[in-house]
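note to self: dont lose this again. the chain is below, predicted strucutre after it. 301 aa total, dont forget to put it in the shared folder this time
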Amino acid sequence: MEYVVQTKDLSKTFAGKTAVDHVNINIRRGDIYGFIGENGAGKTTFMRMLCGLAEPTGGTMRLFESGDLEKQRRRIGCTIENPAIYPAMTAEENLEVYRILLGITDKNIVPELLDFVGLGGFGKKKTRDFSLGMKQRLMIAIAMIGDPEFLILDEPMNGLDPMGIKEVRDLLLELNKEKKLTIIISSHILDELSRMATCYGIIHRGALVDEFTARELERRRRRNLKIVTDNPDKTERLLKTSVSANFETMPDGAIVLYDRLETAADINRMLISNGIAVSALSPGEQNLEGYFMDLMGGKIA
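---
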């Protein structure tokens, strides 16, 4: 398995304050790597170092299993803190600017990219009149102008409505599948990230908390049993005294049981025999946000 990114004790300090603290990250070719952390955790600083926009103060980095970073960065496309979009220009004119700046001679790349990101039919419409979702797709097109093998995307779904989020998600999945792009993407929209990511890195206060695959994540998420009754208070008392189960009561009165799940039928009979009407008894598992909040001590923001 080839690695696109390998860092060892990568660190960055600003005026004596540590922004990235001895981070070891490994991104395999073909992965969609979900990079998660609270605001100020160090995600953007780490991505800037990958792109060459910030110089590490410690540690080492390899790109495409090579230490020749300047050469290998030619194989990278990125959107860090939003690339400049000229509002008085069309999408095509914006891409033409970047094509010329990068010295790309193939003029066909611009219409091809516009069609691929779904902006091929907007003709003379100025980007100042674009929706936020359209602007995000244009920024992804800008990141792709050099035909990269690795995309670095910092919060590409930030501020989007549900339709815009879906459009960007579908585009990234298509890039990964059809163009075989490896992608690292930071996002606060954890459930959406879970629909794309094949592996995750969790960063907190500059340090990498954990790194694991999507398959491993599925094993780690807590299974549970949701119980809805007509008398939550009495249900709580019975669970404490008769079952001794680990549970919590939700604001809507539903009770989520985290152990003794194999005794669901017995619990149901016990509640009914005590005069409680059970309207729902459904298995589930901890949602992603809950898992990451637990992992990071409730620090995701």
